[in-house]
Specification:
The protein is of the alpha+beta class and about 110 residues long. It has a single domain, classed as Histidine kinase-like ATPase, C-terminal domain (Heat Shock Protein 90, 2-Layer Sandwich), CATH 3.30.565.10. Helix content is about 25%, strand content about 30%. It has 2 helices and 4 strands, in the order αββαββ. The protein has a 4-stranded antiparallel β-sheet with strand order 1-2-4-3, covered by helices on one side. β3 and β4 form a beta hairpin. It is globular, with a radius of gyration of 15 Å. The two termini are about 25 Å apart. About 20% of the residues are buried.
């Protein structure tokens, strides 16, 4: 994965967690290395998401009052497809959301 794509994935996910959290709310960021994947997760305790399947669509916004163009998660969706990243989101209205990305790790081959 190129550096720009990784930065977009992280930035867009964190920006949304901040945007949809309550003032002074808590956000938990996780990064775990497993055998062949890195698991990156962001959990907020904000307003939650009504329809988690629609959020990946271009221009999709659940709350227009909070700004943005509805492009961030669509960009993340394209990055995940390009690099074989498994993505998931779980959410409860009024309780918050958790976004999780399973990023494949590749070993660099050294020349003999």
């Amino acid at each position: 994965m190129d550096e720009t794509s990784l930065m977009r994935l992280i930035d867009n996910t964190l920006s949304n967690a901040i945007k949809y959290s309550r003032p002074g709310g808590k956000i938990i960021i996780g990064l775990e290395k497993r055998v062949s994947i890195a698991v990156f997760s962001v959990q907020d305790f904000g307003i939650g998401i009504k329809d988690t399947s629609a959020i990946w669509e271009r221009y999709s916004r659940e709350n227009a009052a909070l700004g943005g163009f509805g492009l961030g998660l669509n960009i993340i969706d394209k990055i995940c497809k390009r690099y074989g990243i498994a993505k998931s989101v779980s959410s409860k209205l009024g309780e918050g959301s958790t976004f999780c990305y399973k990023i494949p790790l590749f070993k660099q081959k050294l020349l003999d």
